[in-house]
Design brief:
Strand content: under 5%
Structural class: mainly alpha
Shape: globular
Order of helices and strands: HHHHHHH
Helix content: over 70%
Number of strands: 0
Amino acid sequence: MIVSLIKKYILPKEVDFIAALNQHVLIITKITDDLYECFINGKNSSCDSILNDVNHEKQMREKNMKELLGTFITPIDRESIYRVTTQLDWIALSITHFTLEAKAYEISKLDYSNIIKGLQYQSQLLSSGFKTIKSSPLNTTQSSQKVRNVYNEIVEIYVKRMAMLAKSKNMNEIFIQKELLNQLKEISKRMQMCANSLEDIVMKMS
């Protein structure tokens, strides 16, 4: 009982930020899953879910930031926690912008399944990385590298699609497709940036 009282009233508050960040990543995974269902399978309910998921993500960001500001002891570098939190929020915001733009162009389905599947895989890899950050740092760095590999693959797909578009004479189609493809590529790039920060955490913990 004395120990519990000391922890409650004397010792600084401790928060499992690694678990919190993984919960944040899982929300991003849900958003990418809804992105696939919305634009590849044409499910309108999933399109609506994206906005709901993003609201959930914002709540998670605010919670993690509040915890960070109110905690003196963190298991990892405070700046690293802040960096990953803002990067995940950036990913969610970018997917929102993509969805709004696609809907503004009255697009309900897209032929981008390989790219969006790549985004789903990157998000899953980030989650795997956070799960093993304590138990197996090597597995975490491997997950981070796979995220970078997927980004390279998506860039290659982007280049090929742009080369095909360059041969089209439909300027309206070129403009719309270029805008959407570029946004998807940027979302993947931000996944990679988050993976780099995850790897940075591992290096600082070792």
